[in-house]
Amino acid sequence: MIDPSPGIKKKKITIPASLEGVYVAEKALIRLGFESKSNFAKSQLISRTTVTKFFLSEPIQLDSFKRICETLKLNWREIAGLIEEKQPSQLPTSSYSNPSSDGVVEQVQPEYRRLTVIDKQSKKIKAVITLQGDIDSVQSWKFIQSALREYSGDTIEITDIKEGSIKLFVEGSPEDIEQLVSRIKSGELKEVTGFPVEDVQILSESSDNDESSESNEKWRLVQEIISQPINMRRLSGVDLSDADLSGADLSDANLIGADLIDADLIDANLIFANLIGANLNRANLSLANLRFANLSSADLSRANLRGARLGTANLSGATLGTANLSSAELSRANLSDTNLSRANLSDTNLSRANLSGAKLNNANLSDTNLSRANLSRANLSDADLSRANLSDADLRNANLSGAVLNDADLRNANLSDADLNNTNVVDALFGGNTGLTDYMKRDLERRGAIFGDRPPVRSPK
User: Fold this and answer.
1) How many Å apart are CA 84 and CA 75, to the nearest integer?
2) Which of 1, 111, 178, 446 has its CA 20 to 30 A from that of 392?
3) C-alpha 197: how far from chain center
């Protein structure tokens, strides 16, 4: 049995640009001749959504933040407001990058390094401080930097941030770093702005290159996928978040547990792809070909699947809450026990699909083809099924309380033990249904339902 655990949604380090940083970045965009933000995003293989967020001062993943700044020839720490602009020395923006972990913040044992390295040009040394806590709870990295300076000196600067509790990569003069390390080791400095200090270590010379190479490798891989179409790629567990993979050929690819958060996969070929446990949160998969793909246990919450082809795909146990599947092709797809609450499935083809046990509460299923679909045990409470085709559908034990079935076709549907309390059935067409008693039929007629060719019973105005 394949373990889908690599795709469990985990928290990422995200950072926003300051308002001043956005202004500087806008100027750089014009100065470097990029015609538009979408043109810039395409040239760097970064999703348009990610670039848009950057220029709106919304948090984006740190490695993408650095890539944007590096391309615009800007110091990422200045753009984030971690340091004042125009510092005398500017570090390369990709000196330290976030690894491909895509994690709920995990307790990672720090790797101890004993070799002290002095930067020959800047005469600075580097260290990593591990704090206990959740990255998302940090309100201001600049505030933490100021706190560290109080215990050492003014040369201390945060150069990178990584998960593994909270890992702060800092640099400063040998004297200030040694003083900071000494105070932590002695127990004098036990916490920083409320976050307990777990460990501190001086970094080795090779650590700089190790950190930057991980991010560079990610974007090299993105470039390779786009420029060198290869069938059956092995990409399990890889980090492709924020990447622009529009039109990419990923047919038969092994993407088990891959991180595709905020990725652009518009019109991508993912036929027969294995995406078990993959994280596709907020990914854009509009018009993508996902026929026969395995998306079981994948996270597709808030994903855009408008017009995607998912015929015969396996989405059992997947999360599609608030996803947009309007006009998608899902005939014969397996969506058993899938979370589709509040999803947009309007005008979607779900004929003969397996939706047994699916959560479809508050979903938009208007004008959807659900003929011969298996909706047994499905939760359709408060769902919009107006004008939907539910003919010959299996609705045994389905929860339809509060659902809107106006103008829907339910002929020959199996409604045994279905909950039809407070269901809106004006002009809904019934007939040949299993599970409806004479009393239930009369009650539905009083509410405006039509049985066979009989007109609905109307109350005088």
Assistant:
1) 10
2) 446
3) 30
Each residue's pLDDT, cut to its tens digit, for the chain (461 residues) gives 334 444 344 456 788 999 999 999 999 999 999 989 999 999 999 999 999 999 999 999 989 999 999 999 999 989 998 765 444 444 333 333 343 333 333 333 333 333 333 343 456 777 777 887 766 666 666 777 788 888 777 777 777 676 656 777 777 777 788 788 888 888 888 888 788 888 887 775 544 455 556 668 899 999 999 998 888 999 999 999 999 999 999 999 999 999 999 999 999 999 999 999 999 999 999 999 999 999 999 999 999 999 999 999 999 999 999 999 999 999 999 999 999 999 999 999 999 999 999 999 999 999 999 999 999 999 999 999 999 999 999 999 999 999 999 999 999 999 999 999 999 999 999 999 999 999 999 999 999 999 985 555 444 43
Three-state SS at 182: helix
**Euclidean distance between CA atoms 156 and 126, whole angstroms:** 9
Q: Where are the domains of the chain?
A: 5-79, 125-203
- Burial code (b: 16+ CB inside 10 Å, e: under 16) for 418-428 equals bbbeebbbbeb
The CATH class that applies to domain 5-79 reads mainly alpha
Question: Residue written as tokens 């854009």?
Answer: 284
Q: Which of 431, 425, 375, 434 is nearest to 402 (CA)?
A: 425
Half-sphere exposure (Cβ direction) of 291: Cα atoms closer than 13 Å: 8
- From the CB of residue 388, how many other CB atoms can be counted at a distance below 10 Å? 31
Tell me which DSSP letter residue 16 carries. Answer: P
340 in Cβ contact with 321 (< 8 Å): yes
Among 288, 334, 337, smallest CA distance to 314 is for 334
Which tokens is 151 given? Answer: 């215990």
Helices (H), 206-320: 206-227
Tell me the three state secondary structure of residue 184. Answer: helix
Cβ-based neighbours of 294, under 8 Å, separated by 6 or more: 273, 274, 275, 276, 313, 314
Strand partners, 199: 130
Q: What is the pTM of this model?
A: 0.73
Burial of residue 206 (number of CB atoms within 10 Å: 0-12, 13-18, 19+): exposed
Report which residue type is found at 267.
Answer: D
Backbone angles phi, psi at 216, to 5 degrees: -60, -40
d(CA 347, CA 173): 63
The topology (CATH level 3) of 125-203 is Alpha-Beta Plaits (3.30.70)
